[in-house]
Amino acid sequence: MFNIIFIYYMIPKIIWAYWTGQMDEKIFFFKNRIEKLHSPEEWEINIITERSSLNEMIDTHNEPWIKDLMDNEYVDPAKKSDVIRFFLLKYYGGFWVDLTTFLFCSLNIYYDLESANKTFITMYTQSYMVERIFVTSLNKMSDNVNFQNLLTEDYHELQNRYIKLKGKYKGFPYIPESFFVACVPMHPITIDIFEQLKIFWNMSSLSLINSKEKLCEKMNYLMNELAHEVFDIHMLEYDLIDFFQDSHDELIEKFKNQMMNHIWNCGYIYIYLQMYISLVKYINHPDVIIAQSSDTIPLVTKHNSGLCTIDDITNINYCKKITITKGTEIISLIPLSLYRLIKWEDTDNERVTFQNTILYEQLKSIITLSDAEAIISNYVDQGIYQIKFSHWTRNSHLVVLLMNLFGTIRGGKKRKMRQKSKKTTKTNTKTNTKTNTKTNTKTNTKTNTKTNTKTNTKYQKSFIKKNTNHY
């Protein structure tokens, strides 16, 4: 039960991002894009690359378990990042932006074009697309068969036989994703997500996670619990896990672990379900109003019929923003399916490389920055403000195009335009990456360390004082 009253009515203009490991030329490109679009006089930009600044904040708020998590070599950076993002958003608020996001415009657009009293913003995706990930055979099918053929009523009926939302979740068929989240400090949804993470990692006894296999086992058990809360699942592997739930026989435990790994794949999307549970807990209230605009979707592509579907129960159009009003506050859920229209194709390979996607096809023949900006600006007018690259799409052809059109080499020198042949592009990219990394790493390390230290110190002083009002 939520009983926390927060006093912030506007999301603070702070940008958070986190990166561990080497920052290659692509990461610097995304980072520079964020900095270019946001004036330091107006925005606080905190791109955390060092533990020292993070440790200070952890100590300030007495969350020592996060240090234990960060020190565990077997917990991968993505799971550490999940904890860091909701720690920072809980105590400080602002915008979390995954560092492999290419912003089409400044985040000021969330203040300029929409109501300023939003207290929580995130992306959402259709529940049935998340469900499909859990069912291995259905997921493989969607990766290898023309996507349009999978969106018939018969296919949905088949999928519903195996997995569907449980009763109390059926009225909320939209599941959040975590790469872009914004909120006021101490928002109840953010607090609840953070507490879920805290309970899990504390109960997991981090000292006992002494191998990748042990981590995978823990994550699979977590996913099994989360899925049991949210979904009705009818699969043989899942039923067998449930049947042997109370058994502690060594061989049966081994069997259960194998079955869970087959289904949950080391807890790949656990954070989506944690966010979803917290969101539904907060908005499942008789006084909450959930609405969508009656306007038509401005962007029309061959994928509208497949991605912009309408839920049978709630009439939610998955390509439209969902506005949730609770009292004086507004929660905004941004449709990932609208964003997918410009980067979607039928096969898995095309979605990884971005070849044949609308955005790639439009940009590949562009040679001037002004023409590229006109294309991006047009998408902003249609409600698309960014594009996110995951670890398996970061080396796509589209990233290279964006770097050639919008990028600057560290130090401010304009990047050379895309070469005429793919072979030349590949050669030059490899050469430039090696040369620029070697030449500029020392300079940027010194500059970024100095800048981040100054920024974080300033940020610490102002926001620690403000947050004392919450205790």
Features of the shown structure:
disordered N terminus, disordered C terminus, 20 helices, single chain, 14 strands, 471 residues, 14% strand, two-stranded antiparallel sheet, alpha+beta
Helix content: 40-55%
What structural class do you assign from the helix and strand content?
Answer: alpha+beta
Q: What is the number of independent domains?
A: 1
* Rounded radius of gyration (Å): 23 Å
- Quickly count the helices: 20
| Mean residue pLDDT | 83
Element layout with pairings:
Blueprint: E1 14-18, H1 25-37, E2 44-48, H2 51-60, H3 65-71, H4 77-92, E3 94-97, E4 101-103, H5 109-112, E5 118-126, H6 127-134, H7 136-144, H8 153-162, E6 163-165, E7 174-183, H9 188-203, H10 212-230, E8 231-233, H11 236-243, H12 250-264, H13 270-283, E9 289-291, H14 304-307, E10 322-326, E11 329-335, H15 336-340, H16 348-353, H17 358-363, H18 369-381, E12 386-388, H19 397-406, E13 408-409, E14 413-414, H20 422-467
Parallel strand pairs: 1-2, 1-3, 5-11
Antiparallel strand pairs: 3-7, 4-12, 5-7, 6-8, 9-10, 10-11, 13-14
